[in-house]
Write a structure and sequence with these properties.
The complex is a heterodimer of chains A (about 475) and B (about 475). In chain A, about 40% of the residues lie in helices and about 15% in strands. With about 475 residues, chain A is α/β, with parallel strands linked by helices. With about 475 residues, chain B is an alpha+beta fold. In chain B, the strands form four sheets. Chain B has an eight-stranded mixed β-sheet with strand order 5-6-9-1-10-11-12-13. In chain B, helix 6 packs antiparallel against helix 7 and helix 8 crosses helix 10. Chain B is elongated. At the A-B interface, helix 9 of A face loops of B.
Chain lengths: ~475, ~475
């Protein structure tokens, strides 16, 4: 019942409906369900309809491109000129950026329609979307459960039919994990593939924007627009962007898929493991060769990640000081009071925890033991992947150790929450592309299959995922949203 | 007890790039507050720094000029601290791997003395904005126009032993960055700032004393005064049984004293780490060679050339190569009259420098342009006027009365070289002073001066002194 972007492209091209009509459909759906799902922080109805009207004119004039008139939702971490960009924080509750993120510019240039800004863990710090100042997002498959995070709003919006596609960002699994928990497809590209300009930084050396949608094919369409060099982001790469859609239909015969033994060890839920096994068998049927590989340093990925990410975030979030923008406390007594109360009131608990730990790991006398050590371990983790990719074309395994858990279950225990990202985090540390696609249901809750590729081999991941989806229907399952 | 002073200088030179080090905003001085601060300079969420390649080139120029190691892979790091005029809550600087490593520079603190001073490193960083404490009652204004202006921080070794040496070193660096065209050197506008680390120790002691860092010094004169004040303060403190504490002190030029600003105990832990938004800066041998080939002639090379090719004295050569503006003036003038090098150097360092100092003008704003000065010197060289008359003409040129020829003509200052005319003057004077003629003929040589004086007076200084001398002697012969 949920339309794919591919189907909407066709519908618009054939004149089955206009962009204004399809945009209205989604806006109606958002009105119906956002109160229970809380996927959107801001709905930009008026602007969406204006954009849709303009898009219809483009289509009528025969000037449409791949995304003209396609309604999309954007994670509230991407700055959008003139509308609110909150990053899920009280700190930016009233913040309007005076510019568009590179990704937003690119969608606007194609006359895509923005439905609104999606909910997220505060400053992208979380795996359950419970740290948002604007309230937790509910998983459309089971509203007692979390949608995953931090791009939980985007994943839930797609799963609940409130948007056919959305942007997300992934620092340690924040696209893949919510995609898995909500039963949608999502890809975190190679670090440097998508510009970070205008994407509010959490951990700069790990953050990467990417698309989320129902299908791998839709992800390919969206990534085509999002990817590319941007002179305003020094870490963006001057690599040509391949035609992702053209590569989707390659045969998988002879594709070598590696299964890291560490990803199937203790901690993985049995039912999830069964779904992953069945998916792997599907790939075998499609002609892929399966091998075991080893990523021996996987066990150190989580501590390494949390040192690197928290160190960077402690510095990245210093600009939120109440001086130039964002939350400012009432009647500061002096400068120190201004800083302390503005930041104390503006940031939530998880953000404060990470800033404090990060500042600690960078402080004199601890830097070598934590930050430098983590950088060394990061190299070891990259080497693991380099060795694996010498033998296989892609790596496959579970995206998460279990399906969506209940809201509130892990909030008291940060470490159990951090373990949600055990299979996704290494990919960010190495800077590799990773994808999650629906691969089954356990207790009517989605299971995600993770595919990891070598640098700039997004095409291979999208191709494998698309071929899988041509032969399975997990991506077509949708929850009954109440 | 004999005390030895140890000084190291940290010089911040604002690089003369058109745009900022990490954004496209203009670096021009003096605009309305916050009109030259873009989203990057404001540290808005989501923006990213992009390195200005020209700033890197300028830093390498400096490095090559002081024969320093150039970092083949230098890294930008974040220096984290909170201050309202520091928009991101961190300053992008270089910490472990600077663009310029160890180098050295030779100074001449007094005539005939040369000393080599080590430069420990020079690194690139961004400037902060300005806090305006006196414009709004009970409030502080923030002007971020300066935020993101590229700075080259040049750190000397603890090699300086007196305030004089420190000033000589600072002047030398000041001249160098101007010759290299990488800094305008304007100290009033803050384009060139010095912080001094000062400590004292008993003469002969190997261990360094505890240092104080003196900030807020905006002229070479104040640098010398601030250091001398600080030396005296520290020596008195120790001799009275006290201890110097490591701290930052502000120099107050009005009171000529340094005051404690913050002590080490309150010092920040800057939590430096490599900036993940910027890639390491890679510099190849070819890059360095290309920059080396593009370097202008440096002060040291100029000094040598002035001595060896122009036959100027060591002293004059040192002074003429001592600053960009004086060297530019000298060479512009010299280009049209290379044969006048010696006369020119004397006039620049004598009358012109004197007049400029008196009216507090720079060579660039001199009312007597290089062309006007050469016009004057040509008339001295071809005997149209004497050196003495030249001073009068110089003053007239300074006052805007036109070029030398015009002034000589209109004032009738042309030297009298016609022997007949001079002989007539001599005859008159001899006729009026028989007594002195007698004295001379009796062997009183001194009287000759009297006659010359009289004749010059009669000619209003215009008679050619050489001719006067020669003809006078002939006529006085018995």
């Amino acid at each position: 019942m949920n339309k794919t972007i591919k189907q909407i492209q066709l519908g618009l091209a054939q004149g089955d409906y206009s962009s204004v009509e399809i945009t209205r459909d989604y806006l109606t759906r958002i009105k119906q369900h956002n109160s229970s799902i809380n996927a959107f922080i801001t709905v930009t109805e008026e602007q969406a309809l204006q954009q849709a009207t303009l898009a219809d004119q483009q289509i009528a004039a025969g000037q449409s491109t791949a995304l003209t008139g396609i309604p999309l939702a954007h994670k509230d971490i991407f700055c959008t000129d003139g509308t609110l960009t909150t990053c899920g924080s009280r700190m930016l509750e009233n913040f309007r950026a005076p510019y568009n993120a590179n990704v937003i510019e690119k969608f606007e240039a194609e006359h895509a329609v923005m439905l609104g800004k999606t909910n997220m863990d505060e400053f992208a710090m979380g795996s359950s979307n419970e740290s948002s100042y604007f309230g937790p997002v509910k998983n459309p498959w089971n509203t007692e459960c979390v949608p995953g995070g931090s791009s939980g709003g985007s994943a839930a919006a797609i799963a609940a039919g409130m948007a056919p596609g959305a942007t997300g960002t992934d620092t340690g699994g924040s696209i893949r994990q919510p995609a898995a928990l909500c039963g949608v497809s999502g890809i975190k590209p190679t670090y440097g593939r998508v510009s970070r300009y205008g994407m509010i930084a959490y951990a700069s050396s790990l953050d990467q924007g990417g698309p989320m949608a129902h299908t791998a094919e839709d992800c390919a369409i969206l990534l085509q627009t999002m990817a590319g060099f941007d002179a305003r982001d020094s870490t963006s790469m001057e690599q040509p962007v391949p035609d992702y859609c053209a590569a989707l239909n390659q045969d998988l015969g002879g594709l070598k898929i590696g299964l890291p033994k560490e990803y199937f060890a203790e901690g993985l839920n049995d039912d999830v493991a069964r779904c992953i096994d069945e998916s792997i068998q599907q790939f075998t049927k499609l002609g892929a060769e399966i091998r075991e590989v080893s990523l021996p340093n996987s066990k150190i990925a989580i501590p390494t990640y949390y040192v690197v990410a928290m160190a960077e975030c402690s510095s990245n979030l210093s600009r939120f000081d109440g001086v130039r923008f964002g939350h400012r406390c009432d009647d500061p007594k002096d400068l120190e009071d201004l800083y302390k109360r503005s930041r104390g009131e503006g940031f939530g608990e998880e953000v404060k925890r990470r800033i404090m730990i990060g500042a600690y790991t960078l402080s004199a006398g601890y830097y070598d033991a934590f930050y430098l050590k983590a950088q060394k371990l990061r190299r070891l983790i990259s080497q693991d992947f380099a060795q694996a990719f010498a033998e296989v074309d892609i790596i496959a395994g579970p995206t998460t150790p279990e399906v969506a858990f209940k809201t509130g279950d892990k909030t008291a225990d940060p470490v159990s929450m951090y373990l949600q990202d055990i299979y996704t985090i290494s990919v960010n540390l190495a800077g590799l592309p990773g994808m999650s696609i629906p691969a089954g249901l356990v207790d009517n809750k989605p299971v995600g299959l993770q595919l990891i590729g070598n640098y700039f081999e997004e095409s291979r991941l999208l191709n494998a995922a698309h071929q899988f989806q041509l032969n399975t229907d997990w991506h077509q399952q949708s929850p009954e949203v109440k | 007890m004999q005390w030895e002073t140890v000084i190291g200088l940290e010089i911040h030179a604002q690089l003369a790039t058109r745009s900022k080090i990490f954004s496209a905003a203009s670096t021009a001085f003096g605009a309305e507050p916050n009109t030259q601060a873009c989203a990057v300079d404001l540290g808005l969420p989501g923006v990213l720094p992009v390195l200005n390649a020209e700033a890197v080139n300028m830093a390498i120029k400096f490095g090559v000029a002081i024969d320093a190691e150039i970092g083949r892979e230098s890294v930008f790091a974040r220096k984290n601290y909170f201050y309202p005029d520091l928009p991101k809550g961190y300053q992008i600087s270089q910490f472990e791997l600077p663009i310029v490593g160890k180098g050295e520079i030779s100074i001449s603190p007094q005539e005939g003395v040369h000393k080599v001073i080590g430069v420990t490193r020079a690194h690139l960083e961004e400037d902060a904005g300005k806090s305006l404490h006196d414009q709004f009652p009970n409030q502080t204004g923030i002007d971020l126009n300066r935020a993101g202006t590229p700075l080259l921080e040049i750190v000397s070794g603890p090699d300086l032993r007196s305030a004089k040496e420190a000033v000589a070193y600072a002047r030398k660096i000041h001249a160098l960055v101007q010759f290299l065209d990488i800094c305008d050197g304007n100290m009033q506008e803050g384009s060139f700032r010095c912080d001094a680390n000062v400590s004292v120790r008993p003469l002969g002691e190997a261990k360094l004393g505890t240092r104080a860092e003196i900030k807020n010094i905006n002229s070479f004169r104040f640098l010398e005064r601030a250091i001398n004040y600080e030396i005296e303060r520290q020596v008195e403190l120790i001799e009275d049984g006290g201890r110097v504490v490591q701290e930052t002190r502000l120099y107050d030029a009005d009171k000529n004293e340094t005051r404690s600003m913050r002590s080490k105990e309150e010092a920040n832990d800057y939590r430096y780490f490599p900036d993940p938004d910027l890639l390491p800066v890679r510099v190849t041998d070819a890059d360095i060679e290309a920059i080396r080939a593009s370097l202008p002639e440096l002060p040291e090379q100029k000094r040598q050339r002035y001595v060896e090719q122009l036959n100027l004295s060591e002293y004059n050569a040192e002074l003429l190569s001592g600053s960009r503006e004086i060297a530019d003036y000298f060479e512009t003038a010299l280009a049209s009259a290379p044969e006048l090098s010696s006369l020119l150097s004397n006039w620049i360092l004598g009358d012109l420098t004197g007049a400029l100092n008196k009216s507090e003008k720079s060579f660039a704003d001199s009312p007597v342009s290089p062309a006007l000065l050469i016009g004057l010197l040509r008339r001295i060289a071809d005997n149209t006027i004497s050196g003495k008359i030249a001073k009068e003409v110089f003053e007239a040129i300074w006052n805007g009365e036109g070029d030398a020829d015009h002034i000589i003509e209109s004032r009738g200052l042309k030297q009298i070289t016609d022997s007949g005319a001079i002989e007539k003057l001599i005859d008159d004077v001899i006729a009026k002073n028989p007594e002195q003629v007698q004295q001379f003929r009796e062997g009183k040589e001194k009287v000759l001066g009297f006659f010359v004086g009289q004749i010059m007076q009669q000619s209003k200084g215009k008679a050619n002194p050489g001719q006067v001398n020669q003809l006078l002697r002939a006529k006085l012969k018995p």
